[in-house]
Amino acid sequence: MGKININQSKLNSIINQAFDVVVEVQGEAFQNAIASPIWEWPRETVRKNGETVGSPRDRVDTEELIDSLVISRTRDAAEYEWESDHATIVHDGATLQDGTELPGTSCGSNWAFVWRFTQRLLNRKSLANALQRQVTNGGTM
Fold first, then answer.
1. For every residue of the chain, which 3-state class applies, written as one string?
2. C-alpha angle 34/36/41, rounded to 5°?
3. pLDDT at res. 106
4. Which pLDDT score, from 0 to 100, does residue 52 have?
5. What pLDDT digit, counting tens, does each position of 10-48 carry?
């Protein structure tokens, strides 16, 4: 059997490029989930922009939440943090003074939407094809 030479530096570069794509796509998927009308809500609400919304609904009112996403990337991890003042309430939910429960987004079947959207974006970006083009180099990686 022939010898395969592996260039560790090039392999690491390819892995990092792939991770960058996944981090970007996952961020897009989270944002699209927030902006999709899939979230159950206990009542009609008049938003700051004047729109009346019921349920299911999206989690966007003034764009402040969407605009507050900060993605921190290290060598082998990524953290998605929404820094708006109300991000924690949107994520965790809240109980109003009158006892009304406002549901959060931290759990439930809606996150399946995020993962399906992530897969579609990855397919569209043809991650596998891009990596294959970079890997194929005369048997050397």
1. CCCCCCCHHHHHHHHHHHHHHHHHHHHHHHHHHHCCCCECCCCCEECCCCCEECCCECCCCCCHHHHCEEEEECCCCEEEEECCCCHHHHHHCEECCCCCEECCCCCCCCHHHHHHHHHHHHHHHCHHHHHHHHHCCCCCC
2. 80
3. 59
4. 94
5. 878 888 888 888 888 888 888 988 898 988 888 898 998
Cβ–Cβ under 8 Å, residues 93 and 104: yes
Distance of alpha carbon 125 from alpha carbon 31, whole angstroms: 17
- Mean pLDDT of all residues belonging to the chain: 79
The position carrying tokens 């922009």 is 49
The residue with tokens 């003074």 is 97
